[in-house]
Amino acid sequence: MTDAGAWGEDVMDRDRTLRDHLIGLLRGGHAHMPFAEAVANFPAEAINRRPPRVDYTFWHLIEHLRITQADILAYLTQADYTAPEWPRDYWPAPDATATAREWDASIAAFTRDLEAIVAILDDPATDLFG
Q1: 120 vs 7, 111, 125, CA distance in Å?
Q2: Cys bridge to 110: 16, 35, 66, 122, which one at CB 3.0-4.6 A?
Q3: Sign, Cα dihedral of 95, 99, 103, 109
Q4: For 79-87, which contacts have Cβ atoms below 8 Å and span 24 or more sequence positions?
Q5: What pLDDT score does 100 carry?
Q6: Which of 109, 108, 113, 117 is CA-nearest to residue 23?
Q7: In angstroms, rounded to a whole number, what is the distance separating the alpha carbons of residues 35 and 91?
């Protein structure tokens, strides 16, 4: 094998390692609990509660994650992307509450968008530095 061939394989290995590392960070289990584990069996009666000394309910926090991640996905996939207004468009209204169905919808949308971002990262055709 030539040096150029070995270098090419090394670059491919580093590319795959970077992709796998980014996907691992997004899915959790390294620096934080995986999202699915954090929301699993969350008590429905608590979704609109504000923890002590926190300005947001649990649903506000989940919805903020969903909105922010949806914005990242839009940035990655839409040629005509326009950034929402920060911070207003990244949070639900302070007095907004959610039903159990809306809580579940936020979680489902977050999970769907996460997997869409993972698919982009996992695609070797995606230029991670482009």
Answers
A1: 25, 14, 9
A2: 66
A3: negative
A4: none
A5: 96
A6: 117
A7: 18
Q: What do you get for the CA distance between the two ends of the chain, in Å? A: 29
Token pair for 97:
């509450």
Helix locations, the chain, DSSP H = 3-27, 35-39, 58-77, 100-122
CB neighbour list of residue 122: distance below 8 Å, 6 or more residues apart: 19, 23
> Between the CA of residue 69 and those of 58, 77, 107, what are the distances in Å?
17, 12, 12
Flag residues of the chain having pLDDT under 70.
1-9
User: Contact, 98 vs 59, CB < 8 A?
Assistant: yes
pLDDT confidence of residue 32: 79
CB 90 within 8 A of CB 71: yes
Helix (H, G, I), strand (E, B) or coil at 91: coil
Please give the single-letter amino acid code of residue 54.
V
